[in-house]
Design a protein that fits this description.
alpha/beta; eight-stranded mixed sheet
């Protein structure tokens, strides 16, 4: 099902937030892949688009590399270059939340792998557009159809667009109760499009992006950590001032001539292992964008060397 991006509000926002409740897995066809890549392509090729695109997707399991490659191979040829970029970033995604960054940090794909209802409850950002595809997480979670409309309403703001494929009468009734109003034919058995337009006052308790508030932030220290924090905050719209004793960045411990970035490894895949693995995954595209491969940085190929045994 196409998202139908390109509405009038698409061109006037400084950022666009999309939620896809069914990105799929190897057993369900990975239909969300084409939706995401098509949205990415539209965002790149349309004259007036938001400067930043955030795409959040729910999927019960991460597909193996072979299944992902097979699905990408049958996509329209125009999507193949973007699909290759996605394939190169899609590595080691265990259950949890993973963010893949493209287009010089302007496009974020957040993959929520695991029970969909749990991830919906953990999201706290208002969406501009939501797509609910057929055979979604309800296949794995019988309560999804019943409970999701309230969660989607919580993540919506007046004017949030909703697309539902093959809805049932019961689902449409739940959506109406939650505050969604049809913008086209209400009949079931076909794609349904609506908008969040509750007839009651909406109390917004969601987290707004920093740019909307123009936060002023002072970062103490201009080493690797301080510089990374300052950059990330600036990318989110904050006004950042870096305070350091030296006149140049990385004058302290970060000024060493060489560094090694490696994930922590543990038998139980502890929180430290997961967060360092995510950190390395985020660092690699940043290195590729800022430094010269083979000259300033390179893959070592070594994860861990155990002496005992």
């Amino acid at each position: 099902m196409a998202l139908g991006v390109g509405s009038p509000s698409w061109a006037t926002n400084d950022r666009w937030q999309v939620l896809d409740t069914h990105f799929g897995d190897a057993s369900q066809g990975l239909d969300g892949l084409e939706r995401f890549l098509s949205t990415w392509q539209t965002w790149r090729t349309t004259a007036k688009t938001p400067p930043r695109l955030f795409y959040t997707a729910l999927l019960p399991l991460s597909p193996p590399a072979e299944a992902l490659a097979q699905r990408l191979a049958v996509l329209p040829p125009a999507l193949h270059p973007l699909g290759q970029q996605l394939f190169e970033s899609w590595k080691g995604l265990l259950p949890g939340v993973h963010r893949l960054v493209f287009e010089n940090d302007a496009l974020h794909l957040t993959l929520c792998i695991g029970p969909g209802l749990e991830h919906l409850a953990g999201l706290d950002t208002a969406m501009n557009q939501i797509v609910w595809a057929a055979a979604g997480p309800a296949v794995h979670e019988p309560a999804f159809d019943e409970q999701a409309p309230k969660q989607l309403a919580r993540l919506s703001q007046p004017g949030t667009l909703l697309a539902v494929e093959h809805p049932t009468t019961e689902l449409l009734a739940r959506l109406a109760t939650a505050g969604f109003k049809a913008t086209q034919d209400l009949s079931t058995g076909a794609a349904w499009r609506g908008v969040y337009a509750p007839h009651w006052p909406v109390r917004n308790t969601l987290r707004g992006h920093a740019g909307a508030r123009r936060l002023r932030v002072v970062v103490v220290g201009g080493g690797l950590s301080g510089s990374a924090v300052a950059y990330s905050l600036a990318q989110r719209g904050c006004q950042v001032e870096v305070v350091d004793a030296a006149e140049q960045p990385a004058a302290g411990a970060s000024g060493l001539p060489v560094g090694l970035v490696a994930p922590h490894v543990s038998p139980d895949d502890s929180a430290l292992s997961r967060i360092t693995r995510a950190g390395v995954a985020s660092t690699l595209p940043r290195l590729a964008g800022l430094l010269q491969a083979g000259q300033d940085w390179a893959h070592s190929g070594v994860l861990e060397h155990r002496l005992e045994g």
